[in-house]
């Protein structure tokens, strides 16, 4: 099976969130199952590492581009071929920007013609999130089978319909099916034109067929579900990257040893008192619910030291900076990979009060590092956090989070019981193998094999 995976970012070459982590681990797991995998992503100017240029030229759908303006770079690693398609739209610092939908409409228009010009063919296209929606639509127009995965339905890639239709290069007859309240919607294009839709946890697959979580696309998703073409597959975790016994950023840890030393090191690093440590590593956006933690801090700081790493909403950043004057609160702005590892290893509990969570990886990482998650019962958090390991709450208010954290604090006082929870969490299997097999099952179903 020759598979083409399409995504806007791929770790370690480019990353802003969990999508890149999935695109690092899933391809390697598929290769181990005998799939011939090519991953295609934009050739961002800020790409980490330098691909080898293997093709440069013009393609039939690139009429607005000068000859030679399209180029493709290649990296091969762990049996996976990574291709990076570059156009002038991506020759600027950073990754995402305000004109991303326009850029990805044009980029998606170029993908299949470019690969054809290179002499490459595939059995199946697997597009990830809205940036790949146009590619999936072009695959349908070309008679090529496809799977489309929703990582976060909230981000849909919408643009003015008239302009978007012109940039998309799609046949006119297909365009009305991608229309959404006067816009061209790239997420909807992926949902409508793919042969099968997946999302990144079973619970989220059920949730998005409802008005509460469907983001206006619940009708489309209900139709796909009724046709047997919607499947939830829980993401796995890169166990080599997140290995507490061999992680260079933390003190070596197993289920039987090393946790107290990491907690002590984090306590010393942030000059914290002897109360247990609660951490959060997150984008500061409404979805993640960290505003609930800020609102609950007057109660929470009676029981916990709190360390937050992340950036996003300026108002939430300002509130955390203000709270950082409190002797039990620390806030570090931005994203710091090494510090994130130390927080997972050195905290007692991990706070994840998401309003919705398609899958989430942080709760899996925290359990692997002996840190018990406190989570809202939604999406992948339901599917991955057993109630005899972490602490789950169903309400959506700061008081609900505060009550869950108080229950966790009482449980922390029972040291044998807490250690039993830690041991159960560290023993959970979040490897990609089972998830990759389920994807292969979907691929075979789509191909009629």
Automatic annotation (TrEMBL):
Record: residues binding ADP-alpha-D-glucose: 15
Residues of the Starch synthase catalytic domain: 3-222
Reaction catalysis annotation: [(1->4)-alpha-D-glucosyl](n) + ADP-alpha-D-glucose = [(1->4)-alpha-D-glucosyl](n+1) + ADP + H(+)
CDD domains: GT5_Glycogen_synthase_DULL1-like
InterPro entries from the UniProt entry: GS/SS (IPR011835), Starch_synth_cat_dom (IPR013534)
GO molecular function: alpha-1,4-glucan glucosyltransferase (ADP-glucose donor) activity; alpha-1,4-glucan glucosyltransferase (UDP-glucose donor) activity
NCBIfam families: glgA
Role played: Synthesizes alpha-1,4-glucan chains using ADP-glucose.
Protein's UniProt name: Glycogen synthase
GO terms for biological process, alphabetical: glycogen biosynthetic process
Catalytic class of the enzyme: transferase
Enzyme Commission number(s) of this protein: 2.4.1.21
Species of origin: Deinococcus aquiradiocola
Family, per entry: Belongs to the glycosyltransferase 1 family. Bacterial/plant glycogen synthase subfamily.
Keywords, sorted A to Z: Glycogen biosynthesis, Glycosyltransferase, Transferase
Pathway given in the UniProt record: Glycan biosynthesis; glycogen biosynthesis
Gene3D superfamilies: Glycogen Phosphorylase B
Signal sequence region: none
């Amino acid at each position: 099976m020759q598979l083409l995976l399409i995504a806007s970012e791929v770790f370690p070459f480019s990353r802003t969130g969990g999508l890149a982590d999935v695109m690092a681990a899933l391809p390697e797991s598929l290769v181990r199952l005998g799939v011939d995998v090519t991953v295609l992503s934009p050739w961002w100017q800020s790409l980490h590492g330098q691909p080898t240029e293997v093709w440069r030229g013009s393609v039939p759908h690139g009429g607005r581009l000068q000859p030679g303006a399209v180029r493709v770079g290649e990296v091969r690693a762990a049996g996976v071929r990574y291709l990076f398609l570059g156009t002038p739209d991506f020759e600027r610092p950073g990754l995402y920007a305000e004109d991303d939908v326009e850029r990805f409409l044009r980029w998606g228009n170029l993908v299949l013609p470019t690969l054809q010009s290179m002499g490459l063919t595939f059995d199946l296209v697997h597009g990830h999130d809205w940036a790949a929606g146009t590619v999936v639509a072009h695959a349908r127009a070309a008679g090529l089978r496809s799977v489309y995965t929703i990582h976060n339905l909230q981000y849909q890639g919408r643009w003015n319909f008239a302009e978007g239709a012109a940039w998309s290069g799609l046949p006119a007859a297909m365009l009305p099916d991608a229309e959404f309240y006067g816009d061209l919607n790239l997420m909807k294009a992926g949902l409508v034109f793919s042969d099968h839709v997946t999302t990144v946890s079973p619970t989220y697959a059920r949730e998005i067929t409802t008005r509460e979580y469907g983001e206006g696309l619940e009708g489309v998703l209900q139709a796909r579900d009724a046709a047997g073409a919607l499947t939830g597959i829980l993401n796995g975790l890169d166990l080599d990257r997140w290995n507490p016994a061999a992680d260079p950023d933390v003190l070596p840890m197993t289920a039987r040893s090393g946790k107290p030393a990491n907690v002590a090191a984090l306590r010393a690093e942030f000059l914290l008192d002897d109360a247990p440590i609660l951490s959060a590593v997150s984008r500061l956006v409404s979805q993640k619910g960290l505003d609930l933690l800020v609102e609950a801090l007057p109660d929470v700081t009676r029981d916990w030291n709190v360390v937050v790493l992340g950036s996003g909403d300026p108002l939430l950043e300002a509130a955390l900076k203000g709270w950082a004057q409190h002797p039990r609160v620390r806030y570090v702005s931005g994203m710091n990979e090494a510090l994130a590892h130390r927080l997972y290893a050195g905290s007692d509990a991990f706070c994840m009060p998401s309003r919705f969570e398609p899958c989430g990886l942080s709760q899996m990482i925290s359990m692997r590092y002996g840190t018990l998650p406190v989570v809202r019962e939604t999406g992948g958090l339901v599917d991955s956090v057993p109630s005899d390991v972490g602490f789950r709450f169903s309400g959506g208010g700061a008081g609900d989070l505060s009550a869950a954290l108080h229950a966790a604090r009482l449980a922390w006082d029972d040291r044998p019981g807490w250690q039993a929870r830690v041991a159960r969490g560290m023993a959970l299997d979040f490897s990609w193998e089972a998830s990759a097999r389920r994807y292969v099952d979907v691929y075979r179903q789509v191909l009629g094999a």
